[in-house]
Design a protein that fits this description.
The complex is a heterodimer of chains A (380) and B (309). About 5% of the residues of chain A have low confidence. In chain A, helix 8 links the parallel strand 9 and strand 10. The relative contact order of chain A is 0.13. Chain A is built from 12 helices and 15 strands. Chain A is 46% helix and 20% strand. The termini of chain A are far apart. Chain A has 380 residues and is α/β, with parallel strands linked by helices. Chain B has one domain: Orthogonal Bundle (ABC transporter involved in vitamin B12 uptake, BtuC), CATH 1.10.3470. Chain B is built from 13 helices and 4 strands. In chain B, strands 1-4 form a two-stranded antiparallel sheet. Chain B is globular. The chains are: A alpha/beta (380), B mainly alpha (309).
Amino acid sequence: MKAKKILSALLAGTCFFGMSAAMTSSVSAEEVIKVGVFLPLTGDNAAGGELELRGVELANKNHPTVLGKKIQLFVQDNKSDKAEAANVVARLIEKDKVCAIVGTYGSSLAMAAGNIVKENKIPTVGTSCTNPQVTKGNDYYFRACFIDPFQGTVMANYFKKLGYKNVAIIQEVSNDYSVGLAKFFMDSFKGMGGKIVEIANYQTGDKDFTAILTNVKAKKPDAIYAPGNFTESALMISQAHQLGLKVNFYGGDTWETNDFLEVGGEDVEGAVLTTAFGREVATTKEAKVFLDTFAKEFKNEEPSALTALAYDAYMMVYYGIQKAGSTDSVAIRNAIANNKNLPLVTGKTTLNADGDPVKGAVIKTVKNGKFVYVDFVQPK
Amino acid sequence: MDFVTLFQAFGDMTFVNFCQHMVNGISLGSLYALIAIGYTMVYGILLMINFAHADIVMMACYFAFFGIRIFHIPWYLTFVGVIVATAILGVVIERSAYRPLRDAPKNSVLISAIGASFLLENLANYVFGGRPLRFPKVQVLAQNISIGDVRTQFICICIPIVLAICLAVLLHIINHTKTGMAMRAVSKDYEIARVMGVNIDNIISITFVIGSSLAAIGAIMWGVRYPGITPYLGVMPGLKCFIAAVVGGIGNIKGAVIGGFILGLGEVLIVAFFPALSGYRDAFAFIVLIIILFYKPTGLLGEKTTEKV
């Protein structure tokens, strides 16, 4: 019993010392500008989060100081979990006292944090959260990526160009991103006289898609639009091949990760997706800097759109702080909203009233285990 | 969603599609059954739910990945190695997390099992990383085959056969060997079994060896069929297989197999006949569980006992 008491006293002591050590270190770091980053670094979306963290860190390396002060990044893992996303953002604001936030991959995760940044008036720039609801009605949430209606519409136009008439939709019902893309795709595809022959639903984390794929196969579609998480999508495409469903799969920007290729293997050859960045259309000066420094840092790797968008999200915060001339979060918010024609990696960027950029989309396909450029579509 | 669309699929269902759905459902059901047996066995002997079982399945998938993809061991040797390694892991968990609590209240062991489960998940997350890996492709098992217009993978035919073999071997061990007799004795009353000279620690270790080997076999089949490996891979299948075990009557091995088939086939057929409900297929398992708990709390083949956790 005595031993136990001593042990617990010791434990309590270490906790206390640990805490006080953490406090002093944060007090002494007053001479820096604190920018929070929240991304899914573990869990289902970890692959996307990791690619984006590269982008933020690369941008921070290329542009480390603003207003004569060093920018210090506070990186938090939201674990691909909505509740955790809200928690870590609250922590960034209350404990780390950041003046702006970058993040996140995943519309659901961004929306979970939306109210917190709005109430605390902390400007936040989303990296690749493409659902319209992320910025709508939230003056403090901006983003570097285009939004779902645009991605869905681009794909619908592309389908029209390819001459598809009967299309099946397979959507991840628990994922706002997937449902959003599918909805806007259907709206414009039906508007152009196309027919949706089947809408199948699945849940995040599902492994078996044979039942819905058998249903889809019975409807004989020309093509399948299946925007969703890359692990599930890759498994689904593999199973479609096993079932002898020979039509092509089309999706959104979430597919553009190595894990999609890793899990899908040769089955995902020919899959087509819309994305925000391609080397072929990178024309700004920042894009050149990005490509050069990326090549130095990650040899033999092709930069993904997620990395480019995260880089841009950091740059939007950077230019915001520069224009505001202070670390006052409301001033930074106004500066980000009013900046025009920012020379970013994914093109010259101006935000609309909702805080969404207006820029073009790249269409890519999987060929020999790599993502290959197909087409570039300008916004209307 | 109106009534007409809900039942539309009944009219559209062709014989070939129905057979395809049945093949899909049977292979999924056999997988659930294989993993459910592990839950039910440990419960039968120890009267505790081994929540770490699903995570043992996950670890077995990683072992197979490392064997084939990193160390380039031929797949058949790797699979044997995976079964051995997983059995060792099961015994290690039993020795470190459950044995010290042998005489503690049942709830403590249950909580220890949840702890072991979280430990394995987070350990895998830390050691292997959170990003998905592809289970090594074994061409022989993963090849596509077709019977008429019904298509599937070779593995889907193997799964029910492997299940039948495992079940036969297991029932033989339990009903016709001395170890099996000791297992049944421990399961009835381990205090008395101990007094009668049964080395219960050994028997429980053997139970974990068998349970974990079954988890490894299930994991190999699961991995070939659904080749994405993540640290949380076991969570949802684990939950469903646990439900399968409860539906069949926890502690009863044949019950676990029946429960596995009810869940697997049910999930597939509900999507087949009610495509409009395809987003709710996970709910099916829980609805079955609630119905069973209401009307037959001991499960389909479960015996009525006075003491339950």
